[in-house]
Amino acid sequence: MTLNKSHIRKLHSFFAPIMLLPILLTLVTGSLYQIAIITGKGGDFMWLLDLHRGKFGRVNLEIIYPLINAFGLLMLAVTGITIWFQIPLKKTK
Prior knowledge:
This protein has three helices and two strands, in the order ααββα. The protein has 93 residues and is mainly alpha-helical. It has one domain. The chain has a two-stranded antiparallel sheet with strand order 1-2.
């Protein structure tokens, strides 16, 4: 099966909204936890580290959450770069 422009765009537009929440959650919780560590209150914010690792209360995704984030981000990067390279260059006169 060949991937043409429309297939790559559809794949990218399918994964982008799905991966937005996990990637943003990882980014925000990791950054806030680092700020808590710098201020010396890391122990009070261990719940941020739990969310960052994929532990959502009774739902524990710590084993697959990093893989989901990595696969999704890699898929978005590859499809995005592929779409970018398919844009024709403007020739100057």
